[in-house]
Amino acid sequence: MNESAPLSQHTPLFQPRFDIGAQRIDCGREPDVATHAAADDFASWPLLDYSDCEPTEDQAAINRWLAEAALEGRDVLHVGTGNSSVARLLAGKARRIESVTVAHNEWRHGRELGLADYSVHLLNKHSLAFAERFEAGAFDCILDNNLASFACCQRHLERYFETLVRLLKPDGFVLTHWLGMQWTLDVGVDDVEPVWRLDAGKLRAIASVYGLSVQREDELFFLRRADRN
Ligand SMILES: C[S@@+](CC[C@H](N)C(=O)[O-])C[C@H]1O[C@@H](n2cnc3c(N)ncnc32)[C@H](O)[C@@H]1O
Questions:
Q1: What residue segments make up the domains of the chain, in order of their start?
Q2: Does the pLDDT of residue 6 top 80, yes or no?
Q3: Which residues share a beta bridge with 98?
Q4: Which residue lies with its CA nearest to atom 24 of ligand 1?
Q5: Considering the chain, what percentage of its residues have pLDDT values greater than 70?
Q6: Cα–Cα–Cα angle for 147, 61, 45, rounded to 5 degrees
Q7: Superfamily for the 49-225 domain
């Protein structure tokens, strides 16, 4: 391989699997925990570190649903750790709870809770490291109230959806919320393309590409394998 050849000659071109109008198809940078650090530094309110905040309105709505759900013995993945409200709610009920965050303080706070069967991972959900962290079919329930809110580009958002599908058990589901779907990082630095503000139609269009169907229950949206029995 010619070391001095442009990157495009080394890397197979990314072919998007859907088109909802995104302009930034490939940001060209492997996502890591610092991807939105500049926006976080710039914002005068908490953007990435919710270790010291109450859950957002959408997270709280998801938690109300979780409190009534039959998750005994289930494996749960929480994307966007916040103050570990999900782990505190489900500890002793779920079989295991894994959580993912890009915020060091959330990672530290979650670990210091010392909850049994709870692990926090400092990882960007769009990264290869996240795609490879857990075994295939590991989770019954994956929670992410900000599914596309931090999308750096279409290529990495697609990688995230591929990972979600890979991680779901056959009867598993991804749960998200209307409020978080509509929110994208928009502080004037390193903003996320507004196209990633999802509505029900966009979510269905994206999900269908990954073989997922979408069921709406009021403001909650459940994504499940369309081909399950
Ligand atoms: C607005 S806070 C919400 C926290 C919590 N889910 C809640 O709603 O209360 C956004 C969360 O998403 C996490 N986050 C943002 N971008 C991420 C990414 N690319 N990968 C993993 N976590 C990310 C942040 O670290 C933080 O935990």
A1: 49-225
A2: no
A3: 77, 119
A4: 48
A5: 94
A6: 65
A7: Vaccinia Virus protein VP39 (3.40.50.150)
Could you give the 3-state DSSP secondary structure of residue 160?
helix
Q: Give the strand order in the sheet containing 96-101.
A: 118-122, 96-101, 75-79, 139-143, 168-177, 220-225, 212-217
pLDDT at 44: 87
What are the structure tokens assigned to 162, written together? 């591929």
Q: Is 124 in the pocket of ligand 1 (CB under 6 A)?
A: yes
**Helix ranges (DSSP H) in the chain:** 7-10, 37-42, 57-68, 85-90, 104-112, 128-131, 154-167, 178-181, 200-209
From 58, 81, 187, mutation site for ligand 1 pocket: most ligand atoms within 8 A of C-beta: 81
59 CA from centroid of ligand 1 (Å): 11
Alpha-carbon distance 111 to 163, whole Å?
24
Please indicate whether residue 102, judged by its CB atom, sits closer than 6 Å to ligand 1.
yes
CB within 8 Å of 152: residues ≥ 6 apart: 24, 27, 29, 31, 35, 36, 126, 192
Distances (CA, A) of 39 to 81, 102, 125, 199, 201: 19, 13, 17, 24, 28
Task: Render pLDDT for 142-174 as a digit per residue (tens, 0 to 9).
Answer: 999 999 999 999 999 999 999 999 999 999 999
**Ligand 1 centroid, distance to 48 Cα (angstroms):** 6
- Condensed to tens digits (0 to 9), the pLDDT of residues 84-119 reads 999 999 999 999 999 999 999 999 999 999 999 999
Q: Round to whole Å and give the CA distance between 189 and 115.
A: 36
Cβ(106) to ligand 1 under 6 A?
yes
pLDDT at residue 11, rounded to an integer = 56
